[in-house]
Amino acid sequence: MKRVTLPGGASMPALGLGTWRLGETQAARRAEVAALRTAIGLGYRLFDTAEMYGEGGAESVLGEALRAAFAAGDVTRDEIFVVSKVYPHNASRQGTIAACDRSRARLGLDRLDLYLLHWPGSHPLAGTVDAFEALCAQGCIAHWGVSNFDLDAMRALQRADRAARCATNQVWYSASQRGVEFELLPWLRARGMPLMAYSPIDQAALAASDALEAIGRRIGATAAQVALAWVLRGEGVVAIPKAVRTAHLRDNLAAAELKLDATALAAIDAAFAPPRRAAPLAMI
Ligand SMILES: NC(=O)c1ccc[n+]([C@@H]2O[C@H](COP(=O)([O-])OP(=O)(O)OC[C@H]3O[C@@H](n4cnc5c(N)ncnc54)[C@H](OP(=O)(O)O)[C@@H]3O)[C@@H](O)[C@H]2O)c1
To answer: Is pTM beyond 0.85 here?
Structure first.
């Protein structure tokens, strides 16, 4: 699995697993823990979650799966990279620290590998960043970053002299949502800051794309695999598709090794045109 380097030199796998919609009902919990154990068994090492998902439920399900996997010796803590996010309404200086404590408890982890502000909110960013830095100093998180920040928000972070230690910006990036290619992705790349691509298969919609299916037929891949390989084609991009079905988990991991040829890339450009001008950041 290709790895993507963070500012400062640490790295994370280029493909991980999303957890939105997990932990929402008790009835699904067993199957969800089993799906996460399967994912770990297949080789997933990067997990993306948030206090928002199932109001802590997704973190709790992931925590249960990780504890079981550690106990069974399937994987060690240091092999796993866990990302979580603070709600903007919790992101005051004190609130961020308290939210992180709750997330770590639900995950059963002393340390989160990466902790993100989920989207820009009304608490002053300086307080959130101070809390992130304090959490780093205490060893509660290894890195911090942001999510759903457009270029103006990234520039504001930089002007406040706060961007230097920001590890990533997690945004919607998929074949149909290419707006970030115009300015934001080059800006991040120039600073060695990875972009984490959420909803890389448009919440399953791209798995049914005729254009991607046609490309997949020619190269022996599914439409979803083409969508993922496309997101991962360049440097400095991490994709975090969510899946619970074993076939999806397998296909998505394999897509990280799939290389698209020039014909495939041209067909994708024809179906989903690259951006020609700046546009508001897409958000789910
Ligand atoms: N920072 C943010 O604001 C933000 C926003 C949205 C998402 N995220 C993160 O990004 C993750 C991924 O985004 P997402 O969950 O919105 O959407 P997604 O990953 O684009 O799509 C997930 C959906 O696609 C299906 N799927 C997965 N692999 C497939 C395959 N190979 N073939 C066909 N269908 C497949 C899944 O089905 P099954 O589950 O049934 O297998 C699920 O219904 C989230 O889970 C979350 O961790 C972050």
So the answer is: yes
* Residue ranges of domains in the chain, CATH in brackets: 3-271 (3.20.20.100)
Calculate how far, in angstroms, residue 250's C-alpha sits from the geometric centre of ligand 1.
14
Assess whether pLDDT exceeds 90 at residue 161: no
- DSSP per-residue letters across the chain: --EEEPTTS-EEESB-EE-TTTTS-GGGHHHHHHHHHHHHHHT--EEE--TTGGGGHHHHHHHHHHHHHHHHTS--GGG-EEEEEE-GGG-SHHHHHHHHHHHHHHHT-S-BSEEEE-S--SS-HHHHHHHHHHHHHTTSBS-EEEES--HHHHHHHHHTT-STTEEEEEEE-BTTB-GGGTTHHHHHHHTT-PEEEESTTGGGGGGG-HHHHHHHHHHT--HHHHHHHHHTSSTTEEE--B--SHHHHHHHHHHTT----HHHHHHHHHHSPPPSS--PPP--
- Ligand 1 centre distance from Cα of residue 22 (Å): 11
Least confident piece of the model among 110-119, 132-141, 158-167: 158-167
Please tell me if the CB atom of residue 16 comes closer than 6 angstroms to any atom of ligand 1: no
Atom of ligand 1 nearest to the CA of 20: 45
